[in-house]
Amino acid sequence: MTRFVQAIEFKTTHIDEFNEKLDAWLAATAGKRTALHGMETRDRDRANTYLQMVEFPSYTEAMQNSGLPETTRFAEELAELCDGPAVFRNLDLVREDDMSDGRTQRLVVRSLDDPDESRPFESGAGRMDVVDTPHGPVGRAVLEPGWRWSQHVKPIAGTDSCQATHAGYCVSGRMRIHMDDGTENDIGPGDFLFCPPGHDAWVLGDEACVMIDWAAAGQYAQRR
Fold it and tell me: Quick check: 115 and 131 in contact, CB under 8 A?
């Protein structure tokens, strides 16, 4: 057994911003990171204290992952969000036991028509329906005609432009995305979308735009 685990303990009052940075890192390192599995935990006994556990095939591959420029940038961003230096622990995996009696590998079917949470946008311009799964939250954004991020989500997010990373699929309707660097593109039914942070977006035409999003659903339009 050669697997390796890196544990990072840190204190922060900006955990939502940390998770946005983590989502951006996951998107930016798709296809080249060597990490196998990650877990983020919050300490019940110490306020604002978190432990991030990341599993790798080996120590060597963990060091390759650390050498990615995206990982270096993420570490710098983490340091800016932390209340003091993070503590890193390098752990060789010695023993592993499956205590689930086979329950973890099971068929999961959830209906977005029966969401765990439905988050309304401003002025009744739509909603984000979210279902929680063992593999992370999945969302369905229903964007009504006239919806625009800068009008109907910006007051909720509190940022100048959308800082969420989106990976999703357009079911119906059309939407235009305008990046902070000035580039634009339209998406419609059947289109896959990957969109990094820093953008505005709005519905085109008189049909609602329905999007399935499996990257941003955890925090998008969540009121604090």
Answer: yes
